[in-house]
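Sequence only, no structure available. Ideas?
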Amino acid sequence: MPTPNTIDVCRAHLFTKEVELREQYPQAVVDKVLRVREMYNWFIANPDGTDREFVAEVCQRHGIHRTTAYSDLAVVKSLLPMLGSASRDFHRWRTNEMLIATYKMAEKRKDSKTMERAATAYGKLNRVDLEDEQALPLDQILVQPFTATDDPRVLGIEPIPNINEKISAMIQKYRAETIDIEDVEFEEVDLEFDSLFPDNVSTQNSDNSNDDTC
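Reply:
I predicted one. C-alpha coordinates follow.
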Protein backbone atom coordinates (compact mmCIF):
# COMPACT_ATOMS: atom_id res chain seq x y z
CA MET A 1 0.00 0.00 0.00
CA PRO A 2 1.55 3.36 -1.01
CA THR A 3 2.29 5.90 1.71
CA PRO A 4 -0.32 8.70 1.64
CA ASN A 5 0.73 12.27 0.96
CA THR A 6 1.49 13.89 4.31
CA ILE A 7 0.27 17.35 3.35
CA ASP A 8 -3.08 15.98 2.14
CA VAL A 9 -3.47 13.95 5.34
CA CYS A 10 -2.66 16.98 7.50
CA ARG A 11 -5.13 19.15 5.62
CA ALA A 12 -7.90 16.60 6.00
CA HIS A 13 -7.16 15.36 9.52
CA LEU A 14 -5.21 18.07 11.31
CA PHE A 15 -7.57 17.96 14.30
CA THR A 16 -8.77 14.37 14.01
CA LYS A 17 -8.48 12.29 17.17
CA GLU A 18 -5.30 10.27 17.52
CA VAL A 19 -7.24 7.01 17.86
CA GLU A 20 -8.99 7.58 14.55
CA LEU A 21 -5.71 8.47 12.87
CA ARG A 22 -4.12 5.22 14.00
CA GLU A 23 -7.03 3.29 12.51
CA GLN A 24 -6.48 4.83 9.08
CA TYR A 25 -2.76 5.52 8.64
CA PRO A 26 0.65 4.02 9.44
CA GLN A 27 2.39 5.04 12.65
CA ALA A 28 4.93 7.22 10.83
CA VAL A 29 2.14 9.27 9.24
CA VAL A 30 0.28 9.54 12.55
CA ASP A 31 3.43 10.81 14.29
CA LYS A 32 3.91 13.35 11.52
CA VAL A 33 0.32 14.63 11.79
CA LEU A 34 0.51 14.92 15.59
CA ARG A 35 3.83 16.75 15.36
CA VAL A 36 2.52 19.12 12.69
CA ARG A 37 -0.62 19.76 14.76
CA GLU A 38 1.47 20.64 17.79
CA MET A 39 3.75 22.98 15.86
CA TYR A 40 0.81 24.47 13.98
CA ASN A 41 -0.56 25.53 17.35
CA TRP A 42 2.91 26.80 18.29
CA PHE A 43 2.90 29.03 15.21
CA ILE A 44 -0.52 30.39 16.17
CA ALA A 45 0.73 31.18 19.68
CA ASN A 46 3.98 32.65 18.30
CA PRO A 47 3.08 34.53 15.11
CA ASP A 48 6.44 36.37 15.17
CA GLY A 49 8.44 33.14 15.38
CA THR A 50 11.16 32.63 12.80
CA ASP A 51 11.93 29.50 10.81
CA ARG A 52 15.06 28.94 12.89
CA GLU A 53 13.07 29.16 16.12
CA PHE A 54 10.52 26.72 14.73
CA VAL A 55 13.18 24.18 13.78
CA ALA A 56 14.91 24.51 17.14
CA GLU A 57 11.61 24.12 18.99
CA VAL A 58 10.46 21.01 17.13
CA CYS A 59 13.90 19.40 17.41
CA GLN A 60 13.95 20.04 21.15
CA ARG A 61 10.42 18.73 21.68
CA HIS A 62 10.62 15.59 19.57
CA GLY A 63 14.33 14.91 19.12
CA ILE A 64 14.10 14.70 15.34
CA HIS A 65 16.68 15.53 12.70
CA ARG A 66 16.82 19.06 11.30
CA THR A 67 15.87 17.76 7.85
CA THR A 68 12.65 16.34 9.28
CA ALA A 69 12.08 19.57 11.18
CA TYR A 70 12.32 21.61 7.98
CA SER A 71 9.91 19.17 6.35
CA ASP A 72 7.46 19.84 9.19
CA LEU A 73 8.00 23.56 8.70
CA ALA A 74 7.03 23.29 5.03
CA VAL A 75 3.84 21.42 5.93
CA VAL A 76 2.89 23.93 8.63
CA LYS A 77 3.46 26.86 6.28
CA SER A 78 1.24 25.22 3.67
CA LEU A 79 -1.50 24.94 6.31
CA LEU A 80 -1.26 28.51 7.61
CA PRO A 81 -3.43 29.99 4.80
CA MET A 82 -6.16 27.66 6.10
CA LEU A 83 -6.04 29.33 9.50
CA GLY A 84 -9.04 31.56 8.84
CA SER A 85 -11.26 28.69 7.74
CA ALA A 86 -9.83 26.16 10.19
CA SER A 87 -9.96 28.37 13.28
CA ARG A 88 -13.46 27.16 14.18
CA ASP A 89 -12.36 23.51 14.00
CA PHE A 90 -9.27 24.35 15.99
CA HIS A 91 -11.23 26.03 18.77
CA ARG A 92 -13.73 23.18 18.83
CA TRP A 93 -10.90 20.69 19.17
CA ARG A 94 -9.24 22.76 21.90
CA THR A 95 -12.54 23.09 23.77
CA ASN A 96 -13.13 19.36 23.58
CA GLU A 97 -9.65 18.73 24.97
CA MET A 98 -10.25 21.13 27.86
CA LEU A 99 -13.66 19.64 28.63
CA ILE A 100 -12.23 16.12 28.66
CA ALA A 101 -9.40 17.24 30.94
CA THR A 102 -11.90 18.96 33.23
CA TYR A 103 -14.05 15.83 33.37
CA LYS A 104 -11.06 13.64 34.23
CA MET A 105 -9.93 15.99 37.01
CA ALA A 106 -13.47 16.14 38.43
CA GLU A 107 -13.71 12.36 38.22
CA LYS A 108 -10.54 11.99 40.27
CA ARG A 109 -11.95 14.36 42.91
CA LYS A 110 -15.33 12.61 42.68
CA ASP A 111 -16.95 15.95 41.91
CA SER A 112 -20.16 14.78 40.27
CA LYS A 113 -21.53 18.30 39.66
CA THR A 114 -18.48 19.39 37.69
CA MET A 115 -18.51 16.08 35.81
CA GLU A 116 -22.14 16.67 34.87
CA ARG A 117 -21.48 20.24 33.71
CA ALA A 118 -18.47 19.17 31.63
CA ALA A 119 -20.42 16.32 30.04
CA THR A 120 -23.34 18.65 29.26
CA ALA A 121 -21.03 21.23 27.69
CA TYR A 122 -19.28 18.52 25.68
CA GLY A 123 -22.57 17.18 24.35
CA LYS A 124 -23.83 20.67 23.51
CA LEU A 125 -20.61 21.60 21.72
CA ASN A 126 -20.67 18.45 19.59
CA ARG A 127 -24.47 18.49 19.18
CA VAL A 128 -24.82 14.85 20.15
CA ASP A 129 -28.51 15.39 20.92
CA LEU A 130 -29.29 15.98 17.24
CA GLU A 131 -29.84 13.24 14.71
CA ASP A 132 -27.31 12.86 11.95
CA GLU A 133 -28.33 14.51 8.71
CA GLN A 134 -29.46 12.06 6.09
CA ALA A 135 -27.35 12.22 2.98
CA LEU A 136 -29.23 12.77 -0.25
CA PRO A 137 -29.33 9.61 -2.39
CA LEU A 138 -27.76 11.34 -5.37
CA ASP A 139 -27.11 8.02 -7.09
CA GLN A 140 -30.86 7.34 -7.12
CA ILE A 141 -31.93 10.62 -8.72
CA LEU A 142 -33.09 10.03 -12.28
CA VAL A 143 -32.26 12.71 -14.81
CA GLN A 144 -35.31 13.85 -16.75
CA PRO A 145 -34.68 13.15 -20.46
CA PHE A 146 -35.22 16.09 -22.80
CA THR A 147 -35.30 15.72 -26.58
CA ALA A 148 -35.46 18.70 -28.94
CA THR A 149 -38.25 18.49 -31.53
CA ASP A 150 -40.15 20.69 -33.96
CA ASP A 151 -43.23 18.45 -33.87
CA PRO A 152 -46.18 20.50 -32.49
CA ARG A 153 -48.04 17.31 -31.64
CA VAL A 154 -46.11 17.13 -28.35
CA LEU A 155 -48.21 20.18 -27.36
CA GLY A 156 -51.44 18.66 -28.62
CA ILE A 157 -51.43 20.70 -31.86
CA GLU A 158 -51.91 19.02 -35.19
CA PRO A 159 -49.23 20.00 -37.72
CA ILE A 160 -50.20 21.93 -40.86
CA PRO A 161 -49.48 19.88 -43.97
CA ASN A 162 -46.76 21.29 -46.23
CA ILE A 163 -46.13 24.15 -43.80
CA ASN A 164 -42.81 25.15 -45.35
CA GLU A 165 -44.35 25.50 -48.82
CA LYS A 166 -47.20 27.59 -47.42
CA ILE A 167 -44.77 29.88 -45.62
CA SER A 168 -42.81 30.43 -48.83
CA ALA A 169 -46.02 31.14 -50.76
CA MET A 170 -47.18 33.72 -48.21
CA ILE A 171 -43.81 35.46 -48.31
CA GLN A 172 -43.95 35.69 -52.09
CA LYS A 173 -47.53 36.95 -51.96
CA TYR A 174 -46.83 39.82 -49.57
CA ARG A 175 -43.67 40.76 -51.38
CA ALA A 176 -45.64 41.06 -54.61
CA GLU A 177 -48.31 43.22 -52.95
CA THR A 178 -45.81 45.67 -51.51
CA ILE A 179 -43.53 45.98 -54.53
CA ASP A 180 -44.96 49.43 -55.52
CA ILE A 181 -44.63 50.92 -52.05
CA GLU A 182 -41.97 53.60 -51.91
CA ASP A 183 -40.32 54.72 -48.71
CA VAL A 184 -40.23 58.51 -48.31
CA GLU A 185 -38.77 60.72 -45.64
CA PHE A 186 -41.05 62.59 -43.28
CA GLU A 187 -41.28 66.34 -43.85
CA GLU A 188 -42.68 68.91 -41.47
CA VAL A 189 -45.57 70.74 -43.22
CA ASP A 190 -45.99 74.46 -42.57
CA LEU A 191 -49.75 74.96 -42.84
CA GLU A 192 -51.32 78.42 -43.04
CA PHE A 193 -54.12 77.95 -40.51
CA ASP A 194 -55.42 81.53 -40.96
CA SER A 195 -56.20 80.89 -44.61
CA LEU A 196 -57.53 77.41 -44.06
CA PHE A 197 -59.73 78.21 -41.05
CA PRO A 198 -60.84 81.90 -41.26
CA ASP A 199 -63.89 81.28 -39.04
CA ASN A 200 -61.70 80.21 -36.15
CA VAL A 201 -59.57 83.33 -36.50
CA SER A 202 -62.60 85.69 -36.33
CA THR A 203 -63.96 83.83 -33.31
CA GLN A 204 -60.65 84.15 -31.46
CA ASN A 205 -60.50 87.90 -32.23
CA SER A 206 -64.04 88.35 -30.89
CA ASP A 207 -63.18 86.52 -27.68
CA ASN A 208 -60.10 88.65 -27.19
CA SER A 209 -62.08 91.90 -27.60
CA ASN A 210 -64.63 90.77 -25.03
CA ASP A 211 -61.84 90.02 -22.58
CA ASP A 212 -60.43 93.53 -23.06
CA THR A 213 -63.84 95.10 -22.40
CA CYS A 214 -64.21 93.27 -19.16
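Residues 6-82 form one domain.
Hope that gets you unstuck.
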